[in-house]
Specification:
- The complex is a heterodimer of chains A (418) and B (302).
- Helices cover 71% and strands 4% of the residues of chain A.
- Chain A contains 17 helices and four strands.
- Chain A has helices at residues 2-5, 10-32, 46-73, 80-92, 94-114, 117-142, 150-168, 172-191, 199-219, 221-224, 245-271, 274-284, 286-291, 296-322, 332-345, 350-366, 374-388, and strands spanning 33-36, 41-44, 399-402, 414-417.
- Chain A is globular.
- Chain B is mostly helical and 302 residues long.
- Chain B has one domain (9-228).
- Classes of the chains: A mainly alpha (418), B mainly alpha (302).
- Chains A and B meet through helix 2, strand 1, helix 3, helix 9 and helix 13 of A and helix 2, helix 3, helix 4, strand 1 and helix 9 of B.
Chain lengths: 418, 302
């Protein structure tokens, strides 16, 4: 109790007051004065100043309390037990595990039928970001290569479908693998010039690459129809059957569920494969892994290519979902949002990416109630989340091989997740 | 091609380069010291420009001398930008110093979004005209076609800022502390350097140069809105990396190279692909010099 009282002592209140005065000075020109340059009038909004003062006082007190608490807990280490606890609980009570698993599956299956079309649409978007996040996670989380041009691969997938439909009349299911393949090829092409680059040099080149793709799409009218984009892209069909809009929304939702399951399956297998372990080795130390006989060139190319694959696939789904694409959907912000999905959830962890996509895509949708403040709140949440949970919500759990010595000999090694 | 067109593009590129340099300096200095890509740096520049616009409009009604208004507006812009820069560092970056670098990057991105929307909501989403307060110089009359007085002021101011900054970093005590911190922060701390103070000073200097850049470019283009910071920030970041991030002369050189590339690319080839030229040039340079033009080669140890 005395611990909490400490934060209401005179000294603390004085500190918060100083902070609030500082914020009042800081926000003075932008919050208080509003200039109308057409009518040449100035509006002084003094009530805003009082608002800033009071809210920053509360903010400052809470902030210091939270920072103290974080220091006492010892940083991000506290995030590991949560996942572990759930897992242990599942192991102790198999019926509960089975029951909740079935519950989740049933909920996923009936979701589009018990909610509106709008909700289903949002959920489909969130599922798309799960796959995008998992794809980028291969490059950033496992490979340790910061890629800020991921939206370019996404764009390639979307444009592949749109253009193949216009010129050759190809359908969704044919274009899905083609779009993924095109993005993979582009991934290999990008990997070649960046092989020697590291860290932030890599980040800026990938950023530049993403922008080049977008600007070319915007200006090369003969090829991509320019900034006006391509409209009337057909929604996916079911063995030639065309759906009405509500049916198509539900259908797309189930396609996405299937794709997410497929992606999680493949990514999990990749992660623990020989290839996945070379990615992690490269992330940890490039030179050390090279000296252990890992071909860094090959590893870098495979991370970029396999990361791009998923983006290309989702690009096709995106084009089919919105039925209209233009270059404005594939800006740098798109890449940044996908990166946020990976980092917020917890880098390198599949569960983390799913949670991150859920938060980042559903949060702004449900923040629509605050309409114009939503991006402001979103930015603030990003900062606060990183400050208080720098390792992401779910930190990645590496597979640990535990070998128990047997007195009788034999070699049945136990594998368990730690 | 006649020569005057070439010179026009040359000086135009140099003007662009000067502005990029003023913003890139903040990027590269912050990077040199805490190894963070400060994504919100462009927003600091935008806030500087906005403050200058607000102050100059309010003072404009009093009928003051334009040059005096410009001086007051610039000083206040520098003050507020530096205040925002240091406050931002305390809130969004200081608690993350020990955290993974990508977390700090996301925090910076969040800060950038927050500041953009803060200005958007508190002010306006529209473009605002920026008053032209730089007087026409008589002696520039003959070459007015290729170099106007705003461009002249930009070039001179950038040169002065560069010289002052070089003196500060080479010859003062705090400059020495900054160089030491950028080489090895832990070692510098062991030798009695107050890292927190060095970081604060770095943010103040970086934000101040960004604010100067903000005032100058807004005078040059004559308009601004809440989004100018993001685009300028990306360009300055490219310039800083081009020159070798962490290196101050590199940032200046990279900015000029970028300015000229864009200027000649748009002047002689096509104006639609302005940014494409910049990025392709960047990629080509980085293929041959992976740590930028003036960047030091990193020697990694296992």
């Amino acid at each position: 109790m005395s611990n909490i009282l400490k934060y209401f002592s005179f000294k603390e209140i004085k500190k918060s007051l100083v902070m609030s005065v500082w914020f009042m000075i800081l926000t003075f020109p932008i919050m208080v004065i509003k200039v109308n340059t057409i009518e040449n009038t100035v509006i002084w909004r003094w009530n805003y100043l009082i608002g800033v003062g009071i809210s920053s006082f509360i903010f400052a007190s809470l902030w210091r309390y939270m920072i103290e608490r974080k220091k006492l807990q010892g940083g991000s280490e506290s995030t590991v037990p949560l996942l572990q606890k759930i897992r242990e609980l599942g192991e102790r009570k198999p019926t509960l595990k089975k029951g909740s698993l079935i519950g989740v599956i049933v909920l996923i299956l009936v979701f589009p039928f018990i909610t509106s079309m709008y909700q289903t649409g949002i959920m489909t978007t969130a599922l798309m970001y799960v796959i995008l996040g998992l794809g980028l996670n291969i490059v950033v989380g496992l490979g340790g290569l910061l890629n800020l041009g991921y939206a370019a691969f996404y764009a390639v997938g979307a444009y592949t479908y749109a253009l193949l439909h216009i010129h050759f009349g190809l359908g969704f299911w044919v274009c899905l693998p083609i779009g993924a393949l095109m993005a993979t090829i582009l991934g290999v092409l990008l990997a070649i010039p960046v092989l020697r680059l590291r860290g932030d040099y890599l980040a800026i080149v990938t950023l530049g690459f993403g922008e080049i793709v977008r600007i070319v799409l915007e200006n090369w009218n003969a090829f991509s129809h320019g900034p006006s984009g391509i409209a009337n892209i057909p929604r996916p069909t079911f063995f030639g059957i065309h759906f009405t809009l509500p049916q198509a929304t539900i259908y797309l939702y189930f396609i996405m569920i299937a794709l997410v399951v497929f992606t999680i399956f493949v990514v999990r297998r990749l992660e623990n494969s020989r290839m996945g372990r070379t990615w992690i080795a490269m992330r940890e130390d490039e030179i050390a892994s090279q000296s252990m006989g890992i071909n860094i060139t090959q590893v870098k190319v495979t991370t970029f290519a396999l990361g791009a694959f998923w983006a290309g696939m989702i690009g096709v789904v995106f084009a089919a979902k919105t039925t209209f694409i233009n270059p404005a959907s594939f800006t740098l912000w798109e890449s940044i949002i996908i990166l946020c999905v990976v980092v917020i959830g917890g880098m390198g962890s599949i569960v983390g990416v799913v949670v991150g996509a859920g938060i980042l895509i559903l949060l702004p949708e449900y923040l629509r109630a605050f309409s114009q403040y939503r991006m402001l709140i979103f930015g603030a949440i990003l900062v606060l989340m990183m400050v208080f949970r720098p390792g992401g919500i779910v930190t990645s759990v590496r597979k640990v091989y535990k070998i128990e010595p047997h007195l009788q000999g034999g070699s049945d090694n136990k594998v368990e997740d730690k | 091609m006649d020569h005057s067109y070439f010179f026009e593009l040359f000086l135009g590129g140099m003007t662009r380069g000067s502005i990029y340099a003023l913003i890139a300096l903040g990027y590269t200095m912050v990077y040199g010291i805490i190894k963070l890509i400060n994504f919100a740096h462009g927003e600091i520049y935008m806030i500087g420009a906005f403050t200058a616009l607000i102050v100059s409009s309010v003072l404009g009604f009093t009928g003051m001398n334009p040059i005096l208004i410009l001086a007051i507006a610039s000083v206040l812009a520098i003050f507020f930008s530096s205040a925002y820069g240091t406050t931002m560092e305390k809130i969004a970056y200081k608690p993350l110093r020990e955290a993974p670098r990508l977390s700090a990057l996301i925090s910076a991105i969040g800060m950038s979004m927050f500041l953009q929307n803060y200005v958007l909501l508190a002010q306006t989403p529209d473009f605002l005209p920026f008053p032209d307060m730089i007087p026409d110089f008589k002696f520039l009359q003959p070459i007015n076609k290729i170099l106007n007085s705003t461009q002249f002021v930009i070039l001179v101011t950038t040169a002065i800022v560069m010289i002052l900054l070089t003196i500060l970093i080479k010859f003062t005590k705090i400059g020495k502390a900054m160089r030491a911190t950028s080489q090895d922060a832990k070692m510098a701390q062991l030798l009695g350097i107050n890292i927190n103070k060095v970081i604060t000073v770095t943010f103040i200097i970086g934000s101040a140069t960004a604010a100067i850049g903000g005032v100058l470019i807004s005078s040059h283009t004559g308009q601004l809105n809440y989004y100018i910071g993001f685009i300028a920030g990306i360009k300055a970041f490219v310039a800083a990396v081009l020159g070798g991030i962490g290196s101050i002369p590199g940032a200046v050189l990279g900015s000029f190279v970028l300015g000229w590339t864009e200027s000649f690319g748009t002047g002689y080839i096509s104006s639609d692909y302005e940014d494409v030229f910049a990025f392709i040039f960047l990629i080509i340079i980085l293929i041959f010099r992976p740590s930028g033009i003036l960047g030091r080669k990193q020697n990694d140890k296992v």
